[in-house]
C-alpha cells in the first residue's frame, strides 16, 4: 500500500534537444498521447505513464543553482525508461513497424524474461521488458 502523501500519478521529465522531434517520436512511434504542449515543454501520456519533455530548465528560485540538461552521448545515457509489456516480441515487432530502431532483437537475460533496447532522438535508452511468467 502506498502512503497517503504520495501523488496519484508520477511522471518522468526529460531534457530534449528538439521538442518537435521528441514529441513526434513519442507520439508517432511509441503511440503516446500529447496532453499539453507549449513552446518549451510538452506533457505526454501512455497508459498511466506521464512524460514531460522540455528543452531547457535553468535555475529557478525553488531549485537554485540547478540547471537540467541533456548529458547523453552516443555511448552513455543517464536514464533508462522501462516499459513492462505482456509480450516483448510482439511489442518489438509493432514498434519496428512504427519506425523504432532497436539495438538488438529481444533477448532473454540470465534471470529470465525478455527485453530489448532502443534509443529516443535524444539518446535516452528505452527498455521493452517482459517479466518471466
Describe this structure in words.
- The protein has 133 residues and is α/β, with parallel strands linked by helices.
- The protein folds into two domains: 56 residues, 2,3-Dihydroxybiphenyl 1,2-Dioxygenase, domain 1; 58 residues, Signal recognition particle alu RNA binding heterodimer, srp9/1, CATH 3.30.720.
- 16% of the residues lie in helices and 30% in strands.
- The chain has two helices and seven strands.
- The chain has a four-stranded mixed β-sheet with strand order 1-4-3-2, with helices on one face.
- A hairpin with a 2-residue loop joins strand 3 and strand 4.
- The two termini are 23 Å apart.
List keywords for this structure.
single chain, 133 residues, alpha/beta, 2,3-Dihydroxybiphenyl 1,2-Dioxygenase, domain 1, Signal recognition particle alu RNA binding heterodimer, srp9/1, 2 domains, four-stranded mixed sheet, three-stranded mixed sheet, 2 helices, 7 strands
Q: How are the SSEs placed, and which strands pair?
A:
Elements: E1 11-15, H1 19-29, E2 33-38, E3 41-46, E4 49-54, E5 80-84, H2 88-97, E6 114-119, E7 125-130
Parallel strand pairs: 1-4, 5-7
Antiparallel strand pairs: 2-3, 3-4, 6-7
SSE order, one letter for each helix or strand = EHEEEEHEE
**What is the CATH third-level topology name of the largest domain?**
Signal recognition particle alu RNA binding heterodimer, srp9/1
Class from helix and strand fractions: alpha/beta
Which spans have pLDDT < 50 for at least 5 consecutive residues? none
Query: In what range is the share of β-strand residues?
Result: 25-35%
CATH architecture field of the largest domain: 2-Layer Sandwich
State the helicity in percent bands.
Answer: 10-25%
Radius of gyration using CA atoms only = 16 Å
Number of domains: 2
CATH class membership of the largest domain: Alpha Beta
Please work out how many helical segments DSSP would assign.
2
Amino acid at each position: 500500500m502506498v502512503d497517503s502523501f504520495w501523488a496519484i500519478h508520477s511522471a518522468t521529465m526529460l531534457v530534449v534537444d528538439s521538442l518537435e522531434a521528441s514529441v513526434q517520436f513519442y507520439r508517432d512511434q511509441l503511440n503516446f498521447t500529447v496532453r499539453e504542449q507549449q513552446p518549451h515543454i510538452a506533457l505526454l501520456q501512455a497508459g498511466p505513464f506521464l512524460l514531460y519533455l522540455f528543452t531547457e530548465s535553468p535555475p529557478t528560485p525553488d531549485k537554485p543553482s540547478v540547471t537540467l540538461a541533456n548529458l547523453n552521448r552516443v555511448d552513455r545515457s543517464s536514464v533508462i525508461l522501462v516499459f513492462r509489456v505482456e509480450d516483448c516480441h510482439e511489442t518489438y515487432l509493432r514498434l519496428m513497424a512504427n519506425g523504432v530502431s532497436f539495438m538488438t532483437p529481444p533477448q532473454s537475460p540470465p534471470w529470465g524474461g525478455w527485453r530489448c533496447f532502443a534509443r529516443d532522438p535524444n539518446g535516452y535508452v528505452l527498455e521493452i521488458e517482459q517479466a518471466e511468467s
